Amino acid sequence: MEGTMIWFNPAKRHGFIRTDEGERLRVDEDGFEAGHAVGERCRGTKVSFERVALDQAEPRAVNVTVVPIFAERRARSRGRR
Fold first, then answer.
1. CA distance 5 to 3
2. What is the CATH number of the domain that holds 56?
3. Please, which of 13, 28, 60, 65 could form a disulfide with 36 given CB 3.0 to 4.6 Å?
4. Domain residues for 43?
5. Does the model's pTM come out above 0.70?
6. Is 50 contained in some domain?
7. Is 44 within the bounds of a domain?
8. Mean local confidence (pLDDT), 18-27
């Protein structure tokens, strides 16, 4: 699944993701793949993840990774002659 980070608080060690379907999922600090943790200023960061529901607990996001953003290439500017 994919979604967008709503917020993450390193002091509380958790945050929330809004899925592309509109669901709000909690993500804990240990839910991020190694090297993909986000900081406090993560609002709007695109992420991919798996949704899990353990017993009666609320669903959570696990195996969260940041989706890389590729900048579009622009045509090179040619100088005027």
1. 7
2. 2.40.50.140
3. 65
4. 2-66
5. yes
6. yes
7. yes
8. 95
Q: Is residue 74 part of a domain?
A: no
- Tell whether 14 is covered by a domain: yes
- Predicted local confidence at residue 54, as pLDDT: 78
More confident residue, 44 or 54: 44
SS3 of the chain: the string is: CEEEEEEEECCCCEEEEEECCCCEEEEEHHHECCCCCCCCCCCCCEEEEEEECCCCCCCEEEEEEECCCCCCCCCCCCCCC
For residue 29, which phi and psi values (nearest 5 degrees)? -55, -40
As a whole-number percent, the residues of the chain with pLDDT over 90 amount to: 60
Q: Note the pLDDT of residue 80.
A: 62
